[in-house]
Structure formats: structure tokens, C-alpha cells
């Protein structure tokens, strides 16, 4: 549906709010929007006819609606209806709304769309994420201009012949449908936008007649080469994640954006007239060199993860940004000014840098190289410089009056590291060096990070009158050394984790502090007279062991609290005064009573990992929660979770769960962890189509994964040591991109890129 077709959604977060319908009513027009994840309340609103009969646009997205038969009888003026993300199976009753021009039915359970053939005034139709097999009945909808049918993997592609009837069709999205033949698309020459991504296309035969196309998405297919000479109006082309070796875009002079990332290109040639091209992505290929001289208006160039050895070619370019990360570049020396604003050269083999007289560059990234000595001279506009994760023992900076952020973390710096005036420097990170002093830093610094530097004397820190963020974590400081921090009254965020503290008495003067990290210390008690309790919003007390939890009620502005790792803590009673609490972490504590936490109905993120839980049924009270971690909590009955329909992240691992029925309606889930469970099939997962990461490893009872075919957004799936899962994995073979750990392999991936594999291993 078009972005402006319906009014913006209004979230109703409590029953105390009087307004349940938002809209504007008039004699000829009304716009109504309902978004309440409580089916009973929604049913009452609709059944009691609270919607004005003059309504022309009605948005019912995400209201758990199953039956729409009683809602529309008197809404004969509707021209726009949004029923996306509900539980609708039957669309028969919608056919009485003959004036409909815009209809949204995505993310439902619809199989039969035959009743829709009578809605001949439709101009926009969204049927994404359903179970549709045939689209023949839509042949009569000849006024369609926008049609979207993504994620209907069982569709009969021969039925797409009906598309030839849509002579006014401008935008078509049939991605994620296992399409291999484009024969039925060639007659729809009115198209200006076409999305064929995530299919099984090997060649472009059938697209020759689409001469009006301006935007074409062919990503995630099996295309080896492409010639788009018959598309002179093409402005945006996406061919990423294919098998392209050669690509001919010589005749596509109107192109503004090209994405050819994640292919097998080792050389690419462009025509002489690409004056319109502004953005070019060639990342994740096999390119060693390229000639881009005929692109005078190119602004953004991505050549990361290739085989580039030399960067001499960038002298001839005029760009806003260039990304050359993850290549094989070993030298970087420029004495003449480049016409580039932002350069990323991270993750290369650069050992030395000599940059001078640069009047255009504003951002430079040299992180993760092997640089030992670097010299930067006359960078009149440089604002950000990242030299982290190198072997630098000395850095020389001259004439860098605009520098605001400097990252020197994880190098070999010990002594004086700044030998010039940096009047505008605000952010500096020195983590992981053996820094003994900060007296060379300008007083303008507002963000100073000295984590794990071995610093013990922080007297000089007290002279930074503008500090708002200070990280002193993982240093052996002790109580007395913190006395100098009292002078930094402007501090807002302070990290003192693992600093050998047992008192916070010196922090009382930090009256603007909002975030305080005290993890890994042995604080005896939190005395309100020792802390700015009125301003604190985030308080982390992980692994403090001897902490006493008196006086917590005085910290009334807390929104984020963590007591994780305090193994003796049990049955924490959350103060009633914590009315603003949103995030609570109680991982690895002894025992917690969910009933004592349920007064905090505003919590959106709750983590109770490896903690014994009492009264688990009271979880249903957290109706606004979006992220929930119950891993290793000995929770076998998860029925209360069925009511938490706002969840986007759920971890139920290590609980031996046998019944997954309560998960069936959690349609907003994006990540789900069910490792070491004991259920036998995935029958309750078919509606969880938004999931991108799913962990099912070490389930000895899992036999069928049939329903995973509907999870077409999956990017990471872990099935390690699920010994009864069929070897062929046929139900999920069409899902791409997908990483897969399977019982018969230590690692099996359905992507070919080594770097992607590495990232996936880290995820799983």
C-alpha cells in the first residue's frame, strides 16, 4: 500500500487512556485508525458500531482479527481498508465494499482469493505473506496500479498470465515466490517498478519488452549475466546476491543507483555517458581494479570485500563516500588533495600512512590494519578519525583544527599521543592502551573512554570541565582515586565497572548523571545521600555480590536497571516508585517471584536468564513487553506467553519445552531461541513469518520442520544436533538467504561468502 494511504497508527498502551479510535470525521470523509493488541477490546469497538459510517479509510493493522463479516456492513463509503497482520482466512465478506480502491491483506492466513474478483475498483492490492496458490480470480481487476504478492511460496506461477490484463499496472512485487520463468511478465509493459527478488531466476528472458521500467530489483536469484540494453529509462537496479560474472549497463544512461554486491564480478565496464549515476555498490565481489572515470556525478561508491591492491584510482574521483574496507591494500600515501569526503580503509593490510594537504576529507577510517606509525598533516576539514585496532605506538597530527572524534583504542600507545592543538576535539577513545596520563588532551573533550588502560591516577580527569561521558571501567582505581571526579559536575554517563570500588561517596556532586555502571565492584549499600538519585535513569549493578538493596525507592526516574549476576539475590520487590521502568535484567540471580514484578506493567524488556522463577503465569501482565529472556529458568509451561503479542525477541532455550502452542500468535517475533527443547514439529510456527533468526539446536525429538517453509525472512537457522530432522531439508530449501547448521555437518551454509559465514558463526 502507498505510504500515505492510511493515517499513522496510534498505539494505545493502557486501559486508562480514553481514546480508542483516532480520526477526523466530516460530512463526506472520515479517517479511522485502530491499533490495539487486545482482541476483545477491538471486537467491542467494531461490533458496537463506533466507527462512523462516513469513514473512507479504515486501518485495522495488527488487531488479531479473524472474522471480518460483521464489521463492514454499514461502511459502504470505504475506499481504503488495511487489514494487514491479522488472522484472516476468509475474505468473502469484504466483497460488499465495492468502492474499495486500496486493500491491504498482508500477513494473514488467506488461501482463497476468488471472492476478491468483484472488487473491480481496486487500484492497490497487498496480499503479501499468505498461503495463496492461485491468482487467476484477479484477472478482472483491470484498474490495478500497485500489486504486491510477496512470500506466497506455493503460488502457481502459470497463473501469473493474468497479469497481462493489468494494462495500468505500474508497480509489481512478486518477490519470495520461487519464480523461475518470466514469460508471463513480458506483456506488462506499463510497469515502472518491478521486484523479482528472492526467486529462482537464472536468466532475464521475458523482460525485453519492459521498456518503461525505472526501478528493477533482481536480488537473491541465480543470474549469471545480464544485458539490460532494452531498458533505457532504468534508474535503479539491484542485482545483489546473484552469480553475476559480467554485467552490461552501457546503454542504461539514466541509472542513478546500481547494486551489484555479493556476486562473482572480477571486472566491470561502464559506458561513456553515466552522468546520472550517484550510487554504486560493488562490494563482496572479486574486483582487483576498476575504471570509473566516466561517472562525473557519482557520490557513493562501495568496493568493500574485494581484491583491490592499489587505491591510486581514487585520485580521479569526486565522491562523498567511498568504502574500501576488507581488501588487500597495503599502502596509503597521498600528497595531493582528494575530492572525497568520507573514506573507509578498515580491515586491510596497511602498515604506513602518509596523508597531507587534504581539504575535502571529513571522515577517515583506518581501523583493523597493521599500522605502526602514522602522520596526518593539513586536514583542514577532518572531523572523525578512526585508527583503532592497529599497532600504533606514535601518531602525529598537524593542522587538524576541525577534528571532533578520535579513536585510538587497542593500539600500543603508552606516552604522549597528541602533540598538536585540537581545539574542537570532543570524543576520544583510548581503550586497551597502556595510557598513564591524559594531560595532553584539550579541555574541549566531552566524551573520554579509558577502559582497560591500566591508568591509576585520574587526577587530571577532573580538569575536563565539559565531560558528559566518562568510561573508566576495568582499571584498578579504588575509592580515593575517584575524589577528583567530583569536579566533573557535567558528567551524564559514567562507567566504573570493575574498578575495585566499595563506596560511591565521591559521586554525590554529579548532579546531572543519568547513567551509572558499577558492575563488578563490592558496593556495600546505595545511600541516596551519596548519589544523585533524582537524575539517574540507568543503573547497572551486575556481579556486585555484597550489595544491599535498601533505599532503592528513592531512585524514582530509573528506566533501565540490571542486578544480573548477584547470585544471592532472591525475590526482589520492585519499589512502587519505579513508575518509569522499561528495562529490567535479573539474569543469574537465585530466585525471583514474577508476581512481585507484575506491578511494572510498563516494562518492554525483561531478562531472567538462569534464574528460578515463581508464579510464571503472572507474565501475562506484561502486555507491552517486546523482548523477553527466560533461558534456563526451568520453565516448561509457557501458556502465559501467548498473551504477549508485542514480543519481537523471545529466548526460551534450555527449558525442555514440549508444547509450542502458545507461540502460534506471536506474529511480530523477529528472533526466537528454543535450543534444548523437546517438541516434535514446527506446526505452530507457520504464522511467524517475520522471524529472521531461529535457534532450534539440540532438540532430540524434532522430526518435522515442514512449516519453516513459510519463514521466508529467515537469515540464520540453527538445527545442530537435531538428529531426527530429515537429511534433505526440502521444506526450507527455497528460503534465501539462510545459514544452516545441520546434524550431518559441522557447518552447512546456503550462502557462498566466507565473510558472511564468519558473521553467521558469531550470530549462532
UniProtKB/TrEMBL annotation:
Keywords: Leucine-rich repeat, Repeat. The keyword Repeat applies. It holds the Pfam family LRR_14. Transmembrane segments: none annotated. SMART domains: LRR_SD22, LRR_TYP. Residues 58-307 form the Disease resistance R13L4/SHOC-2-like LRR domain. The keyword Signal does not apply. Residues 1-15 have a biased composition (Basic and acidic residues). Residues 19-30 have a biased composition (Polar residues). PANTHER family: LEUCINE-RICH REPEAT AND IQ DOMAIN-CONTAINING PROTEIN 1-RELATED, LEUCINE-RICH REPEAT-CONTAINING PROTEIN 9. This is Leucine-rich repeat protein. It comes from Candidatus Sneabacter namystus.
